Amino acid sequence: MNKILLFLTLAVAVSCKKKEPTTWQTDWAAPVAHGHLTLSDLIPAEYTTLNAENYVSIVYHKPVYTFTIDTIVDLPDTNIVKKSAVAFSSLNVNPGFSYTDTYDQEYLLDQIELKKVQIESGTLEVLIKCPWPGASLVTFTFPKITNGSSVFERTYAMPAASLSNPAIAQETVNISDFMIDLTGTSGDLINMFSAIFEMGSNETTDSYVVTDADSIEYVISFKDLKPNYAKGYFGQYYFSDTVGISLDFMKNIVSGQIDVDSIDMTLTLKNGFNLIAQSKITQVLGLNTKTANTVGLAFPMLNTSMNINPASGGFYDYVPSEFPIPINNTNSNVTGFIENMSDSILLGYELEINPYGNVTAGSDEIFPGSALELFLDAEFPLEFGADALTLVDTFEIAYDNSESVYPENGEFILTYSNGFPLEATAFFQLLDANGNVIDLIESSQPVYSGTYNNVSYLTAPATGELTFSLTSENVVNLDMATHVILNVAFSTDQAQKVKIGSDAWFDFTLKSNLKVNVEL
Fold first, then answer.
1. What angle (nearest 5°) sits at the alpha carbon of residue 290, between those of residues 289 and 295?
2. How far is it, in rounded angstroms, from Cα 80 to Cα 95?
3. For the chain, which has fewer Cβ within 10 Å, the N-terminal or C-terminal residue?
4. pLDDT tens-digit series, residues 338-362
């Protein structure tokens, strides 16, 4: 929306005093506004391209839905809580003594069965309490949690302590980029952490006694884990939704009709995961919010279940599979769908992950950066016929009327240069501070079309002038108005269709010419 502040300030000041007021009538002329409109003022540049025939197409390329790894694989916070003690009621701990405890703990993940997961971000928090009465070394190792070739291991030197006052070690470790193998100690399990705890003396000469009550307590907490790779079976999931797609630039068109010939649209299901999925498009509904008219898009694959193949390749070189659904003039009602001039689209879908269960024996994979997506691609070449295709532009107006100047009537004069291959009519609407239309100002004169070359698609601009007569009532309403809306209704000759070039433009200057009474 262009907002141009229009100052029409009429004022006369004198320094002398008179017993009787003097009045006279005169004409006041002043420029009001200037505008230069191009195609990019109507349609954002991100939605336009120059096609192979060297004229403009409207394009749309955006995902309708996107499922990434964290949509499917949710890693909840979990704790490994372990108490480890000697197996004797009393044991003499000499320098160099140590013993080892191996432990597996299940990671509860509902129906997900993971073998491996790489962590994009997250932390591992360590809390160890040791009551041994002499200096000790406590080491814990996750042999199947690695960063490159390095195994995750931590060793803590604990001072002499007691049951009532144990030695404590705490640490928070960033485990971003770590790979976690969840196949357990045996290597054939799922959702299983495996850990090794080693306890021993850190004394060099002294011995001390520990009992089976002197348990060393470990609390290992995995928090805020976000994966970027996972392997296993991700369960069966069913999703359904209806999403809205807003085409805001279409809201600049307030009325009229268009007639188009060629539209190409493709809905593409892209699977960047190494798993089987199934999807269905349940509706594509275009809504014109100005007319409240809806048109449903009908095409062969509507309400049909489609199997989406897994991605190919591996961790670093995966290639998403694609299932394109072409929609064009011959297999659908896409022409009528576009001619509805919808500014919103409702798209309904269903998506099922692993519809046949664990048929890959736990070999599903989700790769870094991969996604399962539905893309909408559309190209609408700007070759069309138009019948009162009305665009609007709103301007702010600040009309300041001096108490000594009394406008009676007058006119707006719109001088234009039209580089579009479309003729038009134009009118103004005045709005008050509440957005209500309080007046309509029209002209019986047309905006002439530029001269269109149907070989080069270039348009030689037409120039002209429109006069909008202002009554005294119009002038009064102008004083109350805060905004003015310029409505331009474009049309082509009869059944003619034109192609819009990238250099099309509309240049105008708006002037006022008011007949006023001046009282001094």
1. 55
2. 29
3. N
4. 888 888 899 999 999 999 999 989 9
